[in-house]
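Dig into what follows:
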Amino acid sequence: MRKKQRYSQAQLAAAAHVTRQTSNAIENDKYDPSLGLAFQLVQILGVTVG
């Protein structure tokens, strides 16, 4: 979804107030974000949870 929205990992990480490494780990299923961070990412990317 990040790539479709044309966000770089660094841009998304900055918007979510996390490191690029955290963004990368989430994308590669090496880190499960907290519920709060997950909802923040959903809001930034403009998608719904369902």
Summary: The chain has a mean pLDDT of 95. Helices lie at 9-16, 20-27, 35-45. Residues 19 and 46 are 20 Å apart (CA to CA). The longest helix spans residues 35-45.
